[in-house]
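Supplementary notes for students who missed Thursday's class. We covered one full example, reproduced here. Read the sequence, then the structure, then the short commentary at the end.
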Amino acid sequence: MKTLLILRHAKSSWKETGLADHDRSLNKRGRRDAPCIGELLREQGLVPEMILSSSAKRAKRTAEIVAEESGFGGEIMFSRELYAAWPESYIDALSIQPDQYGCVMVVGHNPGLEELLLVLTGEAERMPTAALAQVTLPIESWCELSYETAGELVKIWRPREL
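Structure (token representation):
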């Protein structure tokens, strides 16, 4: 069994007009919610062994804050392919992960993350900013991950419900 943590980036700022979407940073609420998710991971014993994140500034910063607050000690891999990605891109990125990782977290954007959750679990769940979903996957190797993988949604945490 493998564990996949799906994290939508924290709330971003729209203050700077003319800024490319990829370059938007976190706003005040985002900077407040991201550390809470990191603490939650630590408290739940769900600190991932690998983090794969979109290269967008808001996703990157979310991943960094969550990693720091959770006590994550590994390397965060940033990928342009995960920016505004659909499930196929996440599945491709996950399927090449070393099998030594039992728990991997992806940090990205909607609607792709909600679609990924639906594809892997059959569950249509709302993923607002900084929402975290825990999915158990019935695979022994990450290379087995596909659209046919029937995972189970264990829990979803939304910042406003914490």
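Commentary. The chain has four helices and six strands. The helical segments are 28-44, 57-70, 87-95, 112-121. If anything here is unclear, bring it to office hours.
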